[in-house]
Amino acid sequence: MRLSWVIYPLVCFIIAACLCVFAAGFSVRFIEEASKNAINQSFEEAGLTWAHAEADGLQVFVIGDAIDEAERFQAISVAGSVVDAARIVDQTALLDSGDGYTPDFSLEILNNTSTLSVIGLMPENSDRAGFMKKLAKSAGLGKQVNDLITAAAYPAPLNWEPALRLALEAVKETEIAKITIAAGSVKVETLADSLGEKRNLQAVLTRSTPKGVALLLDVMVPRPVISPFVFRAIKREEGFRLEACSALDAEVQDQILNSIMAYAFEGKQSCQIGLGMPDANWPEAVQKSLKTLDSLASGSLTITDIEIKFVADAATPQEEFDKAIGDLKTVLPDVYDIQGILPKLKTATGKGQAEFIATLSPEGLAQFRGPIKSAVNEEIFQSLAKARFGQDAVYSTLSLDDSLPKDWSIYVMAGVEALSLLKQGIVTITLDEVEVKGRTEQETAKADITNQLIEKLPQGYEFRVKVEYVPPRKIEQYVPSSEECLAQINGMLEDRKINFEPGSDRVDIDGHGLLDDLADIFKTCGEIPLEIAGHTDSQGREEMNQELSQSRAQAVLVELQRRRILTSSFVAKGYGESQPIAPNDTEDGREINRRIEFNLIIDQTNLRSDDLAEPQSQPKEAADEQN
Q1: Do 420 and 366 share a structural domain?
Q2: Model confidence over 579-590: pLDDT tens digits?
Q3: Which domain holds residue 245?
């Protein structure tokens, strides 16, 4: 009994001690993890991706290789703002820029309709301000540009500047894009409205790609959503005519067009490709429905999503028509709703003579002639016509006829809507049918008109769509004359100058920016006979100045070639110190005399063969450091 009074308190004491040890250890680990995670998150928010924190008890170790002393101090400061500075142990180190280390320089440009953001790491000796200025110019007016660039004190890698120039061209040519820039490569991810636009973008950027830079182009052409999904064909004595066709993709289009080849369809056929196919059996439904249409003497087939409608000629025997529709119902899935309409033979009532004609001239003038049921319908019609064609482009000669059927205004309004999708055409509306004929510059206009008429016209009412797609004429770009181009070039050179590194023919950073802007002018000028003239001051030996002026003029020519400028009619010529435009006895005068000029060549036949410029593989260094 006495033993139990000793054991029980001892056991309780041991358990309490274990709990205390466990709680203390848990608290220490919790504090370690909390401190480490909080500091690492602060590093990430501050952009200090090179630094990370580790914890051991209450001590926090800041580890990593800082690019410079400023970043190292920033990391310690960020950590000290999260935990007590006394707990921090600095284990960071400075990278030695002479040890061959080079940061992974890259920029990412996110370009959308309203803003453009650029983020990443670029060399400190790159012209960041100039790049952002050109980026804003390429993006266009009204677009906000966000600069999120970090600079590092390391030299620019090979082909970094040419990659920046290509990226600027990509921004100019795209509205929405993600552009990734690295040394010697540019990746462009963007959207295009059509395959033609995609091919044009590929051609433009490929021509603009400098030597030594790889262009990675990923252009997506999104498919539109087609609603409703429509197929419409008409059979007459003269043969078949396709008025509308929808397909999910190129493979489905090929299946449908292969089905069409079995029948005598007029002209070249195609389908509008897009999303929205209502059933996987759509191509099969088209094929079997066409076979049913072929069994009739004449008529129309309209497939709208899963609804299939046949309208036969009134002279078709009822028994023959019912059999054709019944046979189709047995071979198609139950999901399809198949309807057959056999109109009654019309008798001469006088009403069949009603005719409404709408025409649209190539100049955009819309003329309307025919009957309208009431004054209210006329007012509605006039408002719609002016909204579609313009206040001053509508001319109407209308008459009132209250004997017309109540649906007459629906036919007329549908005709106006159809005409508005044409470039030139005529819409004829009678009590029996609507016929739309003309030309359009919109690839999908024929299908859009068919969809509108299916949606708006009453069931059983016939219509015909004979619309030809004519691509819009390309507007010829204005090419300025040689004199106008030279005036633009000299105007830019009034305030700016192509400078070189001292005693060298290498263009300096500011000079590259000026050459970029000059290249934009040259691209609009076409091929012009031009002399690139190099001049120096009088310091140094005359023959050395002559050689330096020639190599500098040659260097400008090479830089223009790198910017994809046509230079076959350009020559580079050095004049040395022979043509000063200011006194050489002052520094300001000598600075003015060291220049590059652009001059028109009046008579190319007088050029000597040795004047024609050829790129030099290596730049020359001159002995005179003052030039």
Answers
A1: yes
A2: 999 998 888 888
A3: 231-299+311-328
d(CA 516, CA 518): 5
| Same domain, residue pair 284 and 377 | no
Asked if residue 368 is part of any domain, the answer here is yes
Q: Which amino acid is at 86?
A: A
Contacts of 309 (CB under 8 A, 6+ apart): 301, 302, 303, 338, 339, 340, 341, 459
Q: How confident is the model at residue 484 (pLDDT cuts 50, 70, 90)?
A: confident
- CATH number of 32's domain: 3.30.1340
Long-range contacts at 336-341 (CB < 8 A, ≥ 24 apart): 336/279, 336/285, 336/306, 336/307, 336/308, 337/306, 337/307, 337/308, 338/308, 338/309, 338/310, 339/307, 339/308, 339/309, 339/310, 340/309, 340/310, 340/312, 341/309, 341/310, 341/311, 341/312, 341/459, 341/460
Q: Within this chain, do residues 489 and 605 fall inside the same structural domain, yes or no?
A: yes
pTM of the predicted model over 0.85: no
| Same-domain status, 273 and 294 | yes
Domain closes at, from 220, 253, 273: 220
Show the 3-state SS of 379-437: HHHHHHHHHHHCCCCEEEEEEECCCCCCCHHHHHHHHHHHHCCCCEEEEEEECCEEEEE
